[in-house]
Design a protein that fits this description.
It contains two helices and five strands, in the order H-H-E-E-E-E-E. The mean pLDDT is about 85. It has one domain. The protein has helices spanning about 1-45, 55-65; strands spanning about 70, 80-95, 100-110, 120-125, 130-140. The protein starts with a helix and ends with a strand. The longest helix has about 45 residues, at about 1-45.
């Protein structure tokens, strides 16, 4: 009986040690990825400053062959009737939860509408929109 208890305790202790090492390893890998994301953010934020026009930002990205896509409302808190589209450029991928197919990481270029632009409802991207912020954006896609 003691032998069985010793084997069970040894297996349990070994399993907990393996899980602990895996957790620490995963945490360090996440920290390294986050450092890469922050470096990308800083490199864009040094050049692309708030107040620049969408045309200037997109011309910069195109000149460097950086793919980008447009999406509405990275920052829902400041959405208004006239909602300019934000530009996103993919910089990484993370593990995704079981109920989603992707967890992509982007640098988001958030824009505001130009004050002189007519106020029509909907999502629009105008060359005169101005950059208000550059941030990291995690986008879960293909979720149930």
């Amino acid at each position: 009986m003691r032998w069985v208890l010793l084997v069970v305790l040894t297996l349990l202790t070994s399993s907990l040690c393996v899980l602990g090492v895996r957790h620490i390893s995963a945490k360090r890998a996440q920290e390294r990825r986050e450092a890469v994301y922050q470096a990308a953010l800083v490199s864009y934020a040094r050049v692309l400053r708030p107040g620049m026009t969408r045309k200037e930002v997109e011309d910069y990205l195109k000149a460097r062959n950086v793919n980008f896509e447009q999406m509405c409302c990275v920052d829902f808190a400041h959405a208004s009737v006239q909602i300019p589209l934000d530009d996103l450029t993919k910089i990484g991928e993370e593990d995704h939860p079981w109920y989603c197919s992707e967890n992509d990481v982007y640098v988001a270029f958030q824009f505001t509408s130009h004050p002189g632009r007519e106020a029509e409802a909907g999502f629009k991207a105008a060359n005169s929109d101005t950059l208000k912020a550059v941030s990291i954006y995690h986008w879960l896609q293909g979720c149930l």
